[in-house]
Amino acid sequence: MSVKIVTDSLSDITGDLIDELGVTVVPLTVFFGHESFLDRVTITTDEFYRRLVHGNVLPTTTQPSPADFLDVYRKLAKETDEILVVTLSSRLSGTYQSAKQAQDMFDGKCRIEVIDSRMVAMCLGVIVIAAAKAAKAGANLDELVDLVHKNISRTYLLAYFDTLKYLAKGGRIGKAQGLLGAVLSVKPILTIKDGEMAPVTRLRSKAAGMDYLYNFAAGFAEIEEMAVENATTPDDAQALAERLKGIYPGRIYLSALSPVLGTYAGPGALAICILGTEKA
Questions:
Q1: Which of 46, 162, 195, 268 is most exposed by smallest CB count within 10 Å?
Q2: Are both 197 and 71 inside the same structural domain?
Q3: pTM of the entire predicted model
Q4: 24 is in which domain, residue-wise?
Q5: Mind listing the pLDDT tens digit for each residue in 140-194?
């Protein structure tokens, strides 16, 4: 029996990939006032961003409960004796802690390993994709754990933000706090460092931001997986992906930032995620 792979909805893996790779996704929850929605399950990205942009209520979020993960473990334990769980950064959410608590609560014979990716969005996604491919090829749980830890240090996120307002209001701004005093016309570029958001630079326009993301990707000697994500600008994401084909002819995953991520990224965000090796 092959190892079963579990992640959370902030991996931003699209539905077709979930089916293709056999990955199980545990959703986080987004709230608009007293209304609650399972991330990408009971609310679509389109509906979420429509409400975010045009509504009067700012959303909030919460992680899955340990019971949510425990239900998944018990279901998958009927199909395998090894489960690998890879979650978003524990510095951004309590999801990792819920997955670990459920591991302690599980009383079956199935072996479960839970890893904090220290990543988010499709940077978590490409780590999970690589693990799922290896599992399908016959890798055992120990081999997959080693692969994931290796790939965590080889995964890179660069994100253009149209505004930091949502990240600040949601309390996830991390080391980018110092950018809040910037003039409104400045567009920040952030990365993830030590599991939390950190500043890279500030630019004057979206066009400059897209150039910066492209040049970032061009700085890699080797690229194994690549993804481009957007919040509310799919045409920009598609244009960037088309441009990137000149340096990476492989499959570029296109995805929308999930509703829970969109709560903090806000409209207009654009990101690139790469699993690979930077040039020396």
A1: 46
A2: no
A3: 0.93
A4: 4-152
A5: 999 999 999 999 999 999 999 988 778 766 444 444 444 444 445 678 899 999 9
